[in-house]
Amino acid sequence: MWFIARAFIVACAGIFALAAPQAHAQESGPGAYVATLVGAATVVDAAGERPLAVGDVVAADGRIRTGDAARVMLVLDDGTRVVIGPETEIALQLVVGSGAGVDRGDIIELLHGILRVRIGVPAPDSDLQTVSPTAVVAARSTEWTMDHAGDSTAVLVLSGVVAVTSTATGDAVALSAGLGTDVPAGGAPSAPREWGAARAADARARTSIAGAP
After folding, report:
1. Which end of the chain has fewer CB atoms at under 10 Å, N or C?
2. What is the per-residue pLDDT across 30-86, written as a single tens digit (0 to 9) for each?
3. pTM surpassing 0.90?
4. Alpha carbon of 95 to those of 54, 76, 106, 205: distances in Å?
C-alpha cells in the first residue's frame, strides 16, 4: 500500500511554496469518463477487468492499461484532461464530490509509461498530483508530461509551473514552461533544463490524441 507524501505548489509572482505531504482518504464512485480512445485499452476496478470504450465512466479508484500504439483521454469532473500514452498503466485515486469543505487532492499514479495532464478549472482547495515510483508532480493550473521507464521518471512542463519532488530524497525543483527534469531511483531531480527538440517532440507525440488541447 502506498503512503504517498503530499506536496503542492502555489505559484504567485514566481514564488513557490512546497507543503509537507500527507495521505488522504479515498472514496469509490465515478471519477472520470473516457472522451477519446485510439487502439486497445482495459480498465480494472471492483467489477473486474474489461475492455475500455469511449463514454465509459472509470471509477475513482480504477486502473487503466493501454496497449501498443494506444491512447486514451480521460476527463475529470473539473475539466482536467489526462492523456494516457501507449504501453502505459495508471491507477486513479480521485476524491469524489465537490463544493465547500471537499479537499480535492486527486492523485494519478503512473506505474509505467507516459501521460500528459492539463488542469481544468482549479478550485481554491484543490490540487492534483501525478506520482511515479521515483517522483511526485504537483500543480494547480498547468500542463505537463510524465514518463516513467526503467527506474527513472522524466517530467516536461508544457505550460504553467509545477513542482517535482523525489520520492526518495524529498528534494524538489520548480519547472516552468519548456523545462524538464529527470528523477532517478534513489536520487534527486536533475537541475531544470530545456530538452532537445527531438526529446520534447517525442513526449508530445506519445501523448497526442484527437480532441486533446
Report:
1. N
2. 579 999 999 999 999 888 999 999 999 999 999 999 999 999 999 998 889 999 999
3. no
4. 22, 11, 6, 30
